[in-house]
Amino acid sequence: IDVVPPPKKPRRPRTPWTEGEVAALDLGVRTFGEGRWEVVLDTYAARFQAVRTVADLKDKWRHVQRQGAAA
Fold first, then answer.
1. How many CB atoms lie within 10 A of CB 36?
2. pLDDT per position as a tens digit, 13-71
3. Disulfide check for 57: which of 10, 16, 37, 39 has CB 3.0–4.6 Å away?
4. Among candidate residues 53, 55, 33, the one with its CA nearest the CA of residue 45
């Protein structure tokens, strides 16, 4: 029996982060704490592009932290 995996969903296009989004992310983490991504996204929704998800915020924050440690 040959098992054929289901087709993968295509990735969504990469959307570069703006300085305003990074500033909102930083403010949200300082206000609500790391890990409260849904609260940050809901509170500052007007400052994030509509395509952003809580996973995007988490990943970007991890990247920002690594960049800060490397500097």
1. 16
2. 999 999 999 999 999 999 999 999 999 999 999 999 999 999 999 999 999 999 887 65
3. 37
4. 53
Residue corresponding to tokens 């998800």:
53
Q: What is the pTM for the complete model shown?
A: 0.82
What is the C-alpha to C-alpha distance for residues 27 and 40, in angstroms, rounded to an integer?
9
Instruction: Identify residue 50 by its one-letter amino acid code.
Output: A
- In whole angstroms, give the CA distance from residue 2 to residue 36: 44
* Residues 6 or more apart in contact with residue 60 via CB below 8 angstroms: 17, 21, 22, 25
pLDDT for 5: 87
Q: Residue 63 is encoded by which pair of tokens?
A: 């990247």
Least Cα distance to 48 among 28, 64, 30, 24 occurs for 24
Q: Are 57 and 68 in contact (CB under 8 A)?
A: no
